[in-house]
Amino acid sequence: MIESGHRVLAYARTLARPPGWKVEASGDTIVITASPSVLQSYNLLLVRRQFDAHEPADMMASENTDLASPNVGKLRNPDLTYIPLSAVETGGNEVPAEQAAIAVEIVSPSNPENDLVGKVRDYPLMDIPLYLLIDPRNGDITLYSEPSPTGYHQRWVGTFGDRVPIPAPFDFGLRTDGLVRYPD
User: Exposure string (b/e) for 101-135, b if CB count within 10 Å is 16 or more?
Assistant: First the structure.
């Protein structure tokens, strides 16, 4: 499985991305998705502004950055992540996933399983310490933490309007009362 995952990852890296599309690799699967809608972008903006206010001095925000874990054959592209400033020195399009402090995803209405199942499975394997999952379909929010090879050990669950307890290195309560749900 891992050898096959490495082949899929290598192939995914060769694909030319049309403007506005993301390419990800997970195991034997390549996932190609469209860029976020205006509503997704708005929700991400509300979240990002709060994270930016609590951003550690040695980190930077990055939207739609490829996080790579060749050792587990994964390439994922979160809506928002915070990575060390030193990642700029590599000059490439990929950042080692274990350098990410968090992955933030706004669930896509066209492919929710990618965020709700695939990334919940992959991000702990990629050693991403925090995964914030915002689901505008029903107003749910989940914060996963304490990754291990068997998954995340901690999970905080809330709804739009709750304050999400974001731990270090950010250490603040994320306000979610301004987030907008998808229309029914």
Answer: bbbbbbbbeeeeebbbebbbebbbbbbbbbbbbbb
